[in-house]
Amino acid sequence: FELTFLMRSQELEKAGLLNKTKIAEGGRKLRKNWSPSWVVLVGNSLIFCVLSKQKPGNSRPESSVDLRGAQLHWANELSSKKNVFKLRTVTGNEFLLQSETDSLIKEWYDTIQNVIDRLDRE
Ligand code: I3P
Q: What is an example of a GO molecular function annotated in this UniProt entry (predicted)?
């Protein structure tokens, strides 16, 4: 599994750097732990990668989220940061994603919502 492979594959919809924290696991609330994550949207999945400081091209996948049945909401009330949205999976995992750049976070929101909508119609 290599990001380079994903980059070349036609399934890649979007990739970029966002701030991420998981706030719930299976419906159980977690303590926030914000960190930068390389986020890759490929097929029906959002993949979070650990950034390698030594080799920036070699980000390792850390976890992935199945977008089927997922819910997306702007969630600025859930953080002191701006530009925050919440992604909730069918399994009750919840993530906050954030960027300082307004246009960038809006693009991510719209692209993920489009994938969720497409999966809902299938
Ligand atoms: C949390 C940390 C988070 C903050 C969170 C704090 O403190 O400062 O950055 O979330 O706020 O509890 P700690 O490091 O002690 O866990 P935001 O940056 O999203 O505001 P919260 O408890 O109001 O969610």
A: GTPase activator activity
How high is the ipTM of this complex?
0.91
Q: What percent of the chain has pLDDT over 70?
A: 89
Q: What is the pTM of this model?
A: 0.89
Whether the CB-CB separation of 98 and 26 falls below 8 Å is answered with no
Ligand 1 atom with the shortest distance to the CA of 84: 19
Distance 122 CA to ligand 1 centre (A): 38
